[in-house]
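Journal club side-thread
Mid-discussion, someone asked how the predicted structure for our own chain would compare to the paper's figures. Pasting it here so we can look after the session.
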Amino acid sequence: MYSILIDKECGCFRKSNLTNNIKISSKDDALVFAIQTKDKMNNKFCGKHKFILSEIENNFVISMNNKSNCCGNGHC
């Protein structure tokens, strides 16, 4: 089982219809879903954050890029 995890839920994520900690049995399907989610967050959210995707064991983690304009504390 593979998980798609959002490292820190920003305000835009909390207001969206996206869900954290999605579980998918196929690695390929999980990767495709994670890429689509990351792209949606980068293209549809307010733009204060830039999201990146990384693979850690059986998890695909979407996190804020440290080079964004936000401190990452979730209040933006």
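Post-session note: Residues 2-64 form one domain.
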